Amino acid sequence: MANTIGGSKLFIPRPPAKGSFPLDHYGECKHLMEQYTECLRQTGSKVTSKCQLLARQYLECRMEKDLMAKEDLKYLGFNADRSNRQSEN
């Protein structure tokens, strides 16, 4: 959002919609983040079912370690039924 003051635009920062969350200083979920980014690299940044499963596992790890607020994954863009079937394969 920007307001005009004296002919120049003034940027007014707003906090993120989900708030901020702590960095993973101890690397508790780093292995999952690295697997996810490697998956994206291998697929040319195309999100595949394998990459989606890794993203889900990474977010679950962050929630379990209190590195982000616990939230139902369906509100983070994950379909529970589809993700459960993928993890069974």
TrEMBL record:
A Pfam family hit: CHCH
InterPro entries, alphabetized: CHCH, COX19
GO cellular component: mitochondrial intermembrane space
Keywords annotated in UniProt: Cytoplasm, Disulfide bond
GO biological process: mitochondrial respiratory chain complex IV assembly
Domain CHCH: 29-64
Subcellular location, record wording: Cytoplasm
Domain of life: Eukaryota
Primary site of residence: cytoplasm
Classification via PROSITE patterns: CHCH
Family membership noted in the UniProt record: Belongs to the COX19 family.
Protein known as: CHCH domain containing protein
